[in-house]
Predict the 3D structure of the following.
Amino acid sequence: MTRYCGRNFTSKELEQIQSLIKHNPEFNRMRLSKEVCRMLQWLKPDGKLKDMSCRVAMLRMDRDGLIVLPPPTHAKAPVKKIEFTSATDPQGPVVCSVNKLPQLHLQMVTKATSALWNEYIERYHYLGYTPLPGAQLRYFITAGEPIVALTGFGAAAWQTAPRDQFIGWNHDQRKKNLNLIVNNARFLILP
C-alpha cells in the first residue's frame, strides 16, 4: 500500500489508475483526477469529488514513477503582481471605545470581491498575499460601512502533533474528523 494526500492506495488501485491513463490518452490531468475519484469513490464529506487532492496525489505518483501522467495542457500562469489601488489606501483611524463601535459583520468574499481581499492582504499583512491552498473561506469584517479587518481560513494540515495531542485524537480519530478543523491562514486588523 502507498499513501498520498491522506489516502492509502492498494496495488490494485494503482493498476486501475495506470489502466485508466493507458486506455484514455485523450484525457487531460483534470479529467483523469475526476475519473479516478469516481472510480475509487474518493469523496469529500459533502459528497463531491476530492479531485484536487487526487490531482496532487497523482502528481506525486508520477514523480515517484508509479504512473506516467500526460503532459500538462496549460502552462502554469505566473503569479501576477498585485497593483495597489485607491480602494485599499489607508483610511482615517477609528477612535472610540470598543463598546461604541458599530456592530461587526462578516462578509464572505465573492468572485467579485476576491481581488480586493487579495490587495488588502498584500498591502497590509506581514506575510503578504499568496494563494491559500485547498478549500478556503475568506471574509471582510466591517464595523458599519468601513472594512476594519480581514480573515481567511483554509483546510487543516494533515498532521500536526501538538494540535492532535491537544484535541486528544489518535490516528483513526484524526482521519475521521479532520474535515471538522480549519486553519486560520490570514487574520488582519487594518492599521
